[in-house]
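Subject: Sanity check before I submit

Could someone independently write out the structure tokens for this chain? I want to compare against mine line by line before I put it in a report. The sequence has 165 residues.
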Amino acid sequence: MGRLTVLALRAVLAALLMGSVFVQAVMVPLLAMDLGDLAADHAYLRTPLLTIVVLGFVTVEIVLVCVWRLVTMVRRGTVFSHAAFRHVHVVIGAVVAAALLVLALAVLLAPGEAVAPGVVLLVCGAAVAVLGVALVVLVLRMLLAQAVARDVEAARMRAELDVVI
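---
Independent answer below. Compare away.
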């Protein structure tokens, strides 16, 4: 990966991380104040909604940090090692947690007249889409495992060739 590509990706990751922290620090308290004005029959939604929003941003931040670390490993040429799997596993876990949070949001919104049934169905679709992202990352993890195995095999063959020569 080229130096300019790594620099551009790090700039995007840093902007996303700063934006996420800004939303948690500024926008979530504003959302909490807005949710304070809910009708009495929907007041039970306030705390779970805020919790889902905050935890959702935490999952995004975890993914961003892990991707940053993987980009660093790519730049150093160490991504084809077993150390990369730890970051990939954390990304998969965070994305699955995000999918579960979106599904929890749908379950929270489903009863009563708080939102239309179509909106709940759209939120369920979003949960499936996020879970699909986790499956894509899982496939990429399998590709990484194959690349690491090939790299280990190539190193072993080079060592055998060095002995012969």
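---
OP: Matches mine. For the report I'm noting this point. The longest helix spans residues 117-164.
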